[in-house]
Amino acid sequence: MATLIAMHYSPWTEKARWALDHHRVPYRVEAHVPMLGEPLLRLRTGRLTGPVTIPVLLDGDGAIYDSFAIARHAERNGSGAPLFPTAHLAEITRWNDRADEGLVAARSLVVARIAASREAQAESLPGFIPESIRPALTGMAQLGVRYLAAKYSLTRDLARAEARLAGALDELRAALDGGAYLLDGDLTYADIAAAVMLQAVRPVRDAFIRLGPATRACWTTPALEQRYADLIEWRDQLYDKHRRG
Ligand SMILES: N[C@@H](CCC(=O)N[C@@H](CS)C(=O)NCC(=O)O)C(=O)O
User: Fold this and answer.
1) Distance between Cα 11 and ligand 1 center (Å)
2) Which residues pair with 5 in a beta bridge?
């Protein structure tokens, strides 16, 4: 069975999992811890130098990097309705790239909030660490936050990051124009890529992605919640109807 190296709270992991689950591709999940997990990740994937990001799918043929490539792999190897209808491939790729710009902006917002929240840092520690010593180990989580800030050159200009995320959401709203799907009247990967951007506006219910209360607060952007309430509603309906697994 394939192994997905994953960070369960990351929208990039969520995109890959949604496609794998949609196509009923069996896989087991191995949790990655930023910074601490990187040496093991490089050993597992055989990529000893250069950038490496999560998710990674390991199957018999080697490692597949990038959520988009994993979703395409799921479509080739699984069953179920296509998420990448050939006629819309270019448009789906464009939406994935546009949504990625929104997610990159969102990452600066979320990491800055986690850097300021000891509670969220404690929640981010690996599950095997006992509750009693978690607060004492937040220093380790702080290092992880700094590591992500450096690795992804995160901006400190949070107003600009918020405006960038809002720009992508405005485009999504205009393209949906009150409809249920971006393309062709049915679910495609474009909807999935766009929907996960809203994780950084108001996270989806715990039944889909479980977050501790302080982490949930870090993933919430109060200034955008009201403004994009219609898109949050759209995202929640999409999850209820299509997010199996
Ligand atoms: N283009 C990649 C981007 C993935 C990405 O940015 N992953 C980040 C999520 S924050 C990650 O790997 N973070 C953990 C790390 O770098 O150790 C994809 O679509 O999979």
Assistant:
1) 9
2) 30, 56
Residues 12-23 have pLDDT tens digits of 999 999 999 999
The closest residue, in CA terms, to atom 10 on ligand 1 is 10
36 touches 147 (CB < 8 A): no
Ligand 1 centre to CA of 152 (Å) is 9
Nearest CA to ligand 1 atom 16: 53
Nearest ligand 1 atom, CA 66: 20
Gap between the Cα atoms of 240 and 208, Å rounded? 10
Amino acid at 37: G
Pocket of ligand 1 (CB under 6 A): 10, 12, 34, 38, 53-55, 66-68, 107, 151
What is the band of 131 on the pLDDT scale with cuts at 50, 70, 90? confident
Contacts of 215 (CB under 8 A, 6+ apart): 9, 114, 120, 123, 124
C-alpha of residue 55 to centroid of ligand 1, in Å: 7
Ligand 1: centre distance to CA 174 (Å): 28
Report the nearest atom of ligand 1 relative to the CA of 104. 6
pLDDT digits (tens, 9 = 90+) for 54-83: 999 999 889 999 999 999 999 999 999 999
DSSP single-letter state for residue 137: G
Which architecture does CATH list for 86-242?
A: Up-down Bundle (1.20)
User: What does the domain layout of the chain look like in residue ranges?
Assistant: 2-77, 86-242
Q: What is the CATH number of domain 2-77?
A: 3.40.30.10
User: Nearest to residue 22, comparing CAs of 14, 31, 32, 30?
Assistant: 14
More confident residue, 110 or 126: 110
